[in-house]
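Is this the right way to post structure tokens for a design question? Let me know if I should format differently. Anyway, here goes:
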């Protein structure tokens, strides 16, 4: 092996390692914690602790989120509409979708920076209902129950409902 060939190989190895370090650094700048997949989130005892959903119920999430939790905001799918019949689980799956979106955002070092927003700028998640009763009595109640029972959230953040904290923050 000639000296110039060894130098070229070393330069190539250094370049690959620098690229790897660059990707790893960017990843660490965005993520505080590696998020789990939506399917794992649903069944995990630390998260939603649900039985597995049906494939029909998973389909909107597969479309909205894809397979990589770190790329759910990069796939161009930012709106979903469920046209399912009464009692089909729309509010349940929508509350899970909201919780998972919150979870992925909380795994980021700065969601605002990721979305090119000023630090401290609120991020809004939206659910649309046909009337106030449906919104507060059905969806919001399910969403609230998911938050109250979400172990990971209670362990990491001081969640407060009606003046009472649900868990202790690990600071």
């Amino acid at each position: 092996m000639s000296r110039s060939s060894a130098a070229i190989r070393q330069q190539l190895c250094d370049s690959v390692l620098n690229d790897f370090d660059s990707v790893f650094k960017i990843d660490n700048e965005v993520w505080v914690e590696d998020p789990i997949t939506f399917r794992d989130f649903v069944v995990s005892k630390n998260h939603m602790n649900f039985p597995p959903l049906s494939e029909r119920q998973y389909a909107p999430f597969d479309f909205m989120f894809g397979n990589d939790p770190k790329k759910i905001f990069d796939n161009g799918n930012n709106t979903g509409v469920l046209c399912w019949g009464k009692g089909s689980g729309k509010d349940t799956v929508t509350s899970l979708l909201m919780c998972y979106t919150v979870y992925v955002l909380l795994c980021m070092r700065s969601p605002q920076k990721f979305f090119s927003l000023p630090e401290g700028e609120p991020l809004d998640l939206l659910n649309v209902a046909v009337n106030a009763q449906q919104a507060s009595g059905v969806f919001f109640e399910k969403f609230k129950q998911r938050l109250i029972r979400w172990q990971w959230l209670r362990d990491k953040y001081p969640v407060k409902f009606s003046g009472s904290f649900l868990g202790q923050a690990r600071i």
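Format looks fine. Someone answered above. Worth noting: The chain is about 55% helix and 0% strand. Confidence is low (pLDDT under 50) at residues 19-26.
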